[in-house]
Specification:
The chain has one domain: Metallo-dependent phosphatases (Purple Acid Phosphatase, chain A, domain 2, 4-Layer Sandwich). The protein is 23% helix and 30% strand. Strands 1, 2, 3, 4, 11, 12, 13 and 14 form an 8-stranded mixed beta sheet that branches. Strands 5-6-7-8-10-9 form a 6-stranded mixed beta sheet, covered by helices on one side.
């Protein structure tokens, strides 16, 4: 994918899960040939699979990631409350109740244009949360008033139908054949990359970007503990998988002044013992 004066090259990475995911992502970013203009990563599982510590936030911030999105596990490490209000790259789901610490969207300047990132939680098969339909549209209307040219959505949800419906709702409301405000809509949470990437009404879309973490795992978690929990229905603490071969899942997107023009899935493996990237899986 070639860059140009009027094109933003954006990379979005699915849920970074545990140490193996963090290590693999740092190797991947350091080895990108043509550097992207903006990198977003979901980090709600970055610290031992649940939440995000200040140490890991700082570590990933220095690796070349420009914005962090999250999800329902963002509160799992309690030191989040000590730094979330000063974490200038971090976005938590916007549809938590009014007064929740942190922010649900951020505006960045990329190649002279304002680009906003919004994080939102779905409601189907998820914990109770405020309506994404009302909360997100109100925020997009506010961002339009600020002169934002590009809006990127991380929809953190379980149900594929909810993600598809919400993305079409936003595209129909804010995009037309000549101009697209919503440039990207990327699903997260399931840790399983879908094969439905497309440009829809000028918006780059994928139902789930996948995850970054140990290949030999159950969506990043160790097999034996997952097996006991799922086969017995008894409480069992999940343990993060530590096998050194990790996968990198995400998407690469090209955005011009009026629309997204290309989306390509990222699906690579990294040997964390050697820091070597493989060809696409």
């Amino acid at each position: 994918m070639k860059n140009s004066t009027y094109t933003i090259k954006l990379i979005f990475l699915g849920d970074i899960t545990g140490r193996q995911g963090r290590t693999a992502v740092k190797s991947f970013i350091s080895k990108i040939g043509e550097k992207p203009d903006f990198v977003i990563a979901n980090i709600e599982n970055a610290s031992h699979g649940f939440g995000l510590t200040k140490k890991n936030y700082d570590e990933l911030s220095s690796s070349g990631i420009d914005c962090f999105t999250s999800g329902n596990h963002i509160w799992d490490k309690k030191d989040i409350f000590e730094y979330i209000d000063e974490a200038t790259k971090l976005v938590r789901p916007i549809n938590y109740p009014s007064g929740t610490r942190g922010v649900g969207s951020r505006v960045f300047e990329v190649k002279g244009q304002k680009l906003a990132v919004i994080n939102v939680l779905g409601r189907v098969f998820m914990p109770p949360i405020d309506s994404p339909w009302q909360t997100v549209t109100e925020e997009i209307d506010r961002l339009k008033e600020l002169g934002v040219a590009h809006v990127i959505i991380d929809f953190h949800g379980e149900a594929t139908a909810e993600k598809i419906c919400f993305s079409k709702f936003l595209a129909h409301k804010y995009n037309d054949e000549n101009s697209a405000l919503i440039k990207g809509f990327f699903g997260t949470h399931t840790h399983v990359q879908t094969a439905d990437e497309k440009i829809y009404e000028g918006m780059a879309y994928i139902t789930d970007a996948g995850f970054c973490g140990a290949v030999e795992s159950v969506i990043g978690m160790e097999f034996e503990t997952s097996l006991r929990r799922l086969s017995t229905s008894l409480p069992e603490r999940y343990e993060i998988a530590e096998s050194p071969i990790a996968q990198i899942n995400g998407v690469e997107v090209l955005i011009d002044r009026t629309k997204s023009t290309l989306i390509k899935r990222i699906n690579l493996e990294v040997d964390n013992n050697k820091g070597v990237l493989s060809n696409e899986r």
